[in-house]
Automatic annotation (TrEMBL):
The keyword Chaperone does not apply. Its cofactor is heme. This is Cytochrome P450 4C1. Belongs to the cytochrome P450 family. It is found in: Endoplasmic reticulum membrane. InterPro entries: Cyt_P450, Cyt_P450_CS, Cyt_P450_E_grp-I, Cyt_P450_sf, Cytochrome_P450_Monoox. It comes from Penaeus vannamei.
Length: 541
């Protein structure tokens, strides 16, 4: 007994001595933590921003519908090119000038996505859009060559064939009565990405009620119900810190709703079986499988996540861009007539589908597309998380801050784009672009983490007549995917129909979650072009 007593006494004294020894270390760690937190708060508070409340920060300011939320974020930008807001205890720095944007986008250090993107993981997994660190780096390296492959020219056939299906559908609606064209365009873009990425046609255009065509409605911001009202579960969760933990979210009714919606979405994905050798054309999935065979660390989940990511990133953005282009054309009849005349001149009235080189010749269409992407960037904000301190426009921003790049506000900066609300495609003529900051216009983002499908020089002029080889050379094959796709579809629509937008610019309401959308859809009137094979003749001008 006496031996036992002395052993426990020995243990106790050892523990208390260790605690005494550890106490200063623990205290130092705690103080270090408090110092870092206080320093972070102090640095962030140097930035202009709305007044916040203890603990909740500006959360109450953000509890509004998403149309109002976007307006409020724009208002925060009015306070300064570099401003701040708090979501609970999370600091956000919001930047909207070219110089500030350059600091982040041009850096190879600030390439990690912010925490906000993890909310997309239940849907998109850890693909290129949502991953960070080593995983992002290896996958980006693996997938980039897919966009340099010569298959791009082959894809033009898919673009034009799907555009023809779209035109056939639109003929039945081209009677001058208003309708929402948004979903028609989206389904066409969805068919294109499935055929090009998966090597398999899903015919969403013909079967718009199919599960895949409906998309995960409570998650995808462009799915029809969420274009009309409400927020996606993702944005809802973003501004409710008590739902941030996966555990708490899963237990909530919202988590259960998300799971139900994902379960429905996963099934059709599983059903679109890739059929090797079905087409001579090589799809991204072929390339992905080919590269993954070379790298045994690539798992089936990695492949699934990249396919989901490409399906989403490859169609929601292009369909938003094409819808905004039609909105712009429908609001600017003079520009539309010029585009139409250019299409007629290039195709010389032939009824045939345009080739890749025909599409490349359509320079005015390109200028209009570029101006559309300025006025209505499909991805209106990009968020990065600083892994180390940064200096942005003389402000010290501490590591751990999420930096919101407000692309929409950047593109409306009057210093870079005089009379920024005006639709003026000539701004992008080379002689009018020379003095512009190179980070004033970033619809495809920029730097190491830019859009993988970004045309290197989106709006190119004839290299023989161009003044600067770097600015106006043709992009290498493979970086033209989105440009060729959009031109093929828009050219097919505009040569057959005249478009009129129903909602004037002053009444237009913007919805901005991950994608910038017109609230209530894209309401247009279509009129068949005389001689344009657009259905009934004579209705158009
Ligand atoms: C008009 C069309 C498009 C626009 C405006 C656009 C814009 C963007 C932007 C702004 C980003 C950066 C997002 C961020 O950092 O949060 C991005 C990334 C990405 N885009 Fe696009 N995109 C378009 C078309 C496409 C297409 C057609 C594909 C695929 C076929 C695609 C695939 C991707 C991927 C995989 C990423 C993630 C890149 C990375 O993080 O490494 N995009 N896109």
């Amino acid at each position: 007994m006496a031996g036992q007593g002395s052993a426990s006494w020995g243990l106790e004294s050892l523990l208390s001595r260790s605690l005494y020894a550890l106490a200063p270390v623990l205290a130092a760690l705690l103080l270090g933590q408090i110092y870092r937190r206080q320093r972070k708060i102090w640095l962030i508070e140097q930035l202009p921003g709305p007044k916040g409340l203890p603990l909740v920060g500006n959360l109450l300011h953000m509890w509004v519908d998403h149309e109002e939320l976007f307006r409020r974020l724009c208002k925060i930008c009015d306070l300064g090119n570099v401003a701040r807001f708090w979501v609970g205890s999370k600091p956000y720095c919001i930047v909207s000038s070219a110089r500030a944007v350059e600091t982040i986008l041009s850096s190879s250090k600030h390439i990690d996505k912010s925490w906000d993107y993890t909310l997309f993981r239940p849907w998109l997994g850890e693909g290129l859009v949502t991953s960070s660190g080593v995983k992002w780096h290896t996958h980006r390296k693996m997938l980039t060559p897919a966009f340099h492959f010569k298959i791009l020219e082959d894809f033009v056939e898919v673009f034009t064939a799907q555009a023809e299906t779209l035109v056939e559908k639109l003929k039945t609606k081209a009677d001058g009565r208003p309708f929402d064209i948004y979903n028609d365009i989206t389904l066409c873009a969805l068919d294109i990405i499935c055929e090009t990425a998966m090597g398999r046609s899903i015919n969403a255009q013909r079967n718009s009620e199919s599960d895949i065509a409906l998309r995960p409605v409570r998650l995808d911001p462009t799915s029809t119900p969420y274009r009309q009202d409400g927020r996606t579960l993702i944005q809802f969760r973003q501004f409710r810190p008590w739902l941030h933990s996966d555990f708490a979210f899963r237990l909530s009714s919202y988590g259960r709703e998300q799971e139900k919606c994902l379960r429905r979405h996963r099934t059709p994905h599983a059903r679109i079986r890739y059929v090797p050798g079905q087409k001579p054309r090589q799809a991204f999935l072929d390339l992905l499988l080919e590269y993954s065979e070379k790298d045994p660390t690539t798992t089936d989940e990695d492949i699934r996540d990249e396919v989901n990511t490409f399906m989403f990133a490859g169609h929601d953005t292009t369909s938003a861009a094409m819808n905004w282009f039609l909105y712009a054309m429908g609001s600017h009849p003079d520009a539309q007539e010029r585009v139409f005349e250019e299409i007629e001149a290039v195709l010389r009235g032939s009824g045939g589908a345009p080739s890749a080189s025909d599409l490349r010749e359509m320079k005015y269409l390109e200028l209009c597309l570029k101006e559309t992407l300025r006025l209505f960037p499909p991805i209106p904000v990009i968020i990065r998380e600083l892994k180390e301190d940064a200096v942005i426009n003389n402000y010290s921003i501490p590591a751990g801050t999420s930096v919101v790049i407000h692309v929409y506000r950047l593109h409306h900066d009057p210093e870079q784009f005089p009379d920024p609300e005006a639709f003026d495609p000539d701004r992008f003529l080379p002689q009018n672009s020379t003095r512009r900051h190179s980070y004033a216009y970033v619809p495809f983002s920029a730097g190491p983490r830019n859009c993988i499908a970004k045309p290197k020089v989106l709006f190119l002029l004839d290299p023989k007549t161009a003044t600067s080889a770097s600015a106006f050379s043709f992009p290498p094959a493979g970086q033209k995917f989105s440009l060729l796709e959009m031109k093929a579809i828009l050219c097919s629509i505009l040569r057959r129909f005249r478009v009129e937008s129903v909602v004037p610019r002053k009444d237009l309401k913007l919805l901005a979650e991950l994608i910038l959308l017109p609230k209530g859809g894209n309401l247009v009137r279509l009129f068949p072009r005389a001689g344009g094979d657009g259905g009934q003749r004579g209705g158009g001008s």
